Amino acid sequence: MRKADLINQISEKTGIPKVDVLVTLETMFKEVKHSLANGENIYIRGFGSFITKKRAAKIGRNIKKNIAVQIPEHFIPAFKPAKEFMQEIKASPNVKESNEKLEDSEE
Description:
The chain is α+β, with helices and mostly antiparallel strands. The chain has two domains: 1-40, HU Protein, Chain A (Irregular), CATH 4.10.520.10; 42-107, IHF-like DNA-binding proteins (HU Protein, Chain A), CATH 4.10.520. Helices cover 51% and strands 27% of the residues. A three-stranded antiparallel beta sheet has the order 1-2-5. A two-stranded antiparallel sheet has the order 3-4. Helix 1 (3-14) packs across helix 2. It is extended and about 55 Å long.
């Protein structure tokens, strides 16, 4: 599902015009990015948490030049689903079917 599909579904189910749904979603995405950039995590009960995870410093390798490169510690955004969310996905029979279809089409 793409963002446009999500907007269409929300608009159809709620009766809210697509433009208003688009503006609301874009604002939500912007606020999530802004909050994470400011070091604030976002917790949505029953859905999940948008958090920042710390990646330790490590040594990588530039393959073309064959030299070691120091990668400093940094933070990355992550999503941690809520317990209820995880249980609902695990209980859904459609998830395995769609994943199997995806794997079959890649072969």
